[in-house]
Write a structure and sequence with these properties.
It contains 10 helices and no strands. By secondary structure, the chain is an all-alpha fold.
Length: 197
C-alpha cells in the first residue's frame, strides 16, 4: 500500500490460524492489526528473522503517514470486512493506493484450484459468514469504534470503550441471518483443505 518503500510485511506463521472454533476466531478477529504484526512469520522465509514483521512495524510506526495510522489500530474483523470482502477495489485504491488483484474474495473465487461449483459457493458463503460464525457484530463494533475515534479526537480516550463481542446466547442478531448450515460449511471446507495438505 506504499506505506514504506524498503520492506514489506510477510505472511504470519500458520500455527496462529489452525484452530477454528468460534471462541478462537472471535479472539483473533478482535486482535488489532499491529498486534498481529507482532506474530512470528512463516518458517519458509529462511533469510528473515521470525520477528521480521514486529521489527519492521516498530521501525516504521513513527514514520507512517497519519492517514494510514488507523489501519494498524483497527481490529482484524474490520480489516477483513473492508479489505477482503470489498467489492469495489477502486474505492480502496482511491483512498489508500491499495491495489491487490489477488486477495480480495471476489478475485479468489475464480482462482480456486477446485473447479467444483459447490465448493466455490460454500467458500464464498463461508467467507461472508465468518464474522457471524465468530460472534462478531460488525455494526455494533463499528458504532463503538466510531465513538472511540470521536473520543480520541477530543483527547478524552477512555480505555473502557472498546469492541463489544456478542456472547453465545445472543449470537443470532437482527443484523445478520446466520444460515443453518454454516457449521457444516466450515467442516466441509476444512476437511477438503486438510486432504490437500
Amino acid at each position: 500500500m506504499n506505506l514504506f518503500k524498503h520492506e514489506e510485511f510477510l505472511k504470519i506463521n500458520s500455527v496462529y490460524k489452525k484452530e477454528i472454533t468460534k471462541k478462537k476466531l472471535n479472539t483473533q478477529m478482535n486482535t488489532s492489526m499491529k498486534e498481529i504484526l507482532q506474530f512470528n512469520i512463516l518458517d519458509k522465509y529462511k533469510k528473515y528473522n521470525h520477528s521480521h514483521n514486529k521489527n519492521l512495524y516498530f521501525d516504521i510506526k513513527n514514520q507512517i503517514d497519519v492517514k494510514y495510522k488507523y489501519l494498524f489500530d483497527m481490529p482484524l474483523y474490520e480489516f477483513y470486512d473492508k479489505f477482503f470482502l470489498i467489492e469495489d477495489l477502486n474505492e480502496l485504491n482511491d483512498k489508500f493506493g491499495y491495489i491487490n488483484k489477488k486477495y480480495p474474495l471476489k478475485n479468489i473465487i475464480p482462482q480456486l484450484k477446485k473447479k467444483d461449483q459447490i465448493y466455490k459457493e460454500r467458500y464464498k458463503d463461508t467467507a461472508h459468514q465468518l464474522l457471524n460464525f465468530a460472534n462478531i457484530n460488525i455494526r455494533k463494533n463499528n458504532e463503538n469504534n466510531f465513538e472511540k475515534i470521536n473520543l480520541l479526537k477530543n483527547n478524552h480516550y477512555d480505555n473502557n470503550v472498546g469492541n463489544q463481542n456478542i456472547d453465545d446466547s445472543n449470537s443470532i442478531s437482527s443484523i445478520y441471518e446466520i444460515p443453518l448450515n454454516l457449521d457444516s460449511n466450515f467442516n466441509f471446507l476444512f476437511n477438503k483443505e486438510m486432504k490437500n495438505q
